[in-house]
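Our preliminary data section would be incomplete without showing what the modeling component actually yields. Below, a chain of 141 amino acids is followed by its predicted structure, encoded as tokens that our downstream tools consume directly.
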Amino acid sequence: MPVRKANAQWQGDLKSGKGDMSLESGAYEGQFSFKTRFEEGTGTNPEELIGAAHAGCFSMQFSAMLAEEGHTPDSIQTEAKVHFSVDGTPTIERIELITRGKVPGMDASQFKDVAAKAKDACPVSRLYKGAEISLDAELEG
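Predicted structure:
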């Protein structure tokens, strides 16, 4: 399996500094700052990108599992609300996945059952349950 990459560069201190994030694929490149993360500023923030990754991953997993059950969806739309607390140490407290789908021949009970299984099977959901994170740090210059 391929290794996917994203990059971030930060310049300055936390409050007055600024940064840029980009995806290896070139599909996204944008700025982030203290204001985009802790207030309302122009640009993105890590939590927003985590939400996008989780919503996308879950939607794909859910679609695959619905198809395995014999119900190929017409559409799956998922919103991820990433709750970020700044009381004390900044922490991602939880993520709410809100999904809606158009799935011919499926009743609401089946839909909810497969959705719950997809949430547990989604690779991004599994990551948040605990993952090995390695670090290679070198001081330059």
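The chain has a mean pLDDT of 91. The first helix runs from residue 34 to 38. Preliminary results of this kind motivate Aim 1 of the renewal.
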